[in-house]
Write a structure and sequence with these properties.
single chain, 248 residues, six-stranded mixed β-sheet, 31% helix, 18% strand, globular
Length: 248
């Protein structure tokens, strides 16, 4: 950046409330504190240490990771593979954003931590469908999610036509694991978000809400204790919660 030039960062209003705000607050802390928090999310299935990276990095580096585009999480070859798997016309769309993405270690192997965060029940949309406007991309995304659902087996009903975000999160976790990288997929509920209606008062309320929402799409028994093996690589879905105090 040339001397005297000031970098300006602009935020949408949603960045100052709900899950987006809390993800930025959490990752705006010192790196050791962020890594300690991420480590608490993945225990006892994985570990996070000082060699690991994460995105976003607080309010000064607020960009969310896209696994198809963002370097540092997947190799160049893996990024190309997942982009081709997800999109027919990459110039017309992006791969999904992750609320928090990071590296970690699972059973001695480099792994990914992928976090989907919610602060109130309204973020679990009942009528949630793929919004791709390009027909080729829409078709490719639908095929990718259905393929993941089929490969995951009995009890899985991932779809681009219903519970789309839930479906794409698990489909991406499955795909990354199929490329040889273990994945910890965390659904993180932020508690006591007073500025939002239909918030979660405690962990049990968050877990009940998520399990009810996922019923019929994701098998209930896969959360928190199951290592789903994808070509021998673990995919570990976890339900976690955190109470991040915000002064409004």
């Amino acid at each position: 950046m040339p001397d005297g030039e000031r970098k300006q960062i602009c935020f949408e209003p949603r960045a100052f409330k709900g899950s987006r705000f809390r993800c930025l607050l959490l990752t705006h802390q010192s790196k050791p504190r962020v890594l300690a928090f991420l480590n608490s999310l993945v225990q006892p299935f994985a570990t996070v240490d000082g060699t690991d990276r994460f995105m976003p990095e607080g309010f000064l580096v607020p960009d969310e990771a896209r696994l198809g585009e963002t370097p540092g999480f997947l190799s160049d070859r893996q990024r190309s593979i997942v982009t081709d798997w997800w999109l027919a016309v990459p110039e017309k769309a992006n791969t999904p954003n992750w609320d928090v993405a990071g590296t970690c270690t699972v059973e001695g192997h480099r792994a990914l931590l992928l976090v989907e965060a919610k602060a109130h029940a309204g973020e679990l949309k009942q009528d949630d469908r793929c919004g791709a406007t390009n027909e080729g991309n829409q078709r490719k995304i639908k095929e990718a999610i259905e393929d993941a659902s089929q490969k995951l087996g009995e009890g899985w009903n991932l779809s681009a036509d219903s519970h789309y975000q839930l479906g794409n999160r698990f489909a991406w976790a499955w795909k990354v694991a199929s490329l040889g990288m273990p994945v910890v997929l965390v659904y993180l509920g932020f508690l006591n978000a007073q500025e939002m209606s239909n918030g979660f008062s405690n962990h049990e309320a968050w877990e009940r809400c998520l399990l009810a929402y996922a019923q019929g799409t994701v098998p209930r028994d896969v959360w928190n204790s199951t290592r789903i093996l994808v070509d021998g690589n673990p995919m570990i879905p976890l339900i976690r919660s955190a109470d991040v105090n915000v002064t409004t």
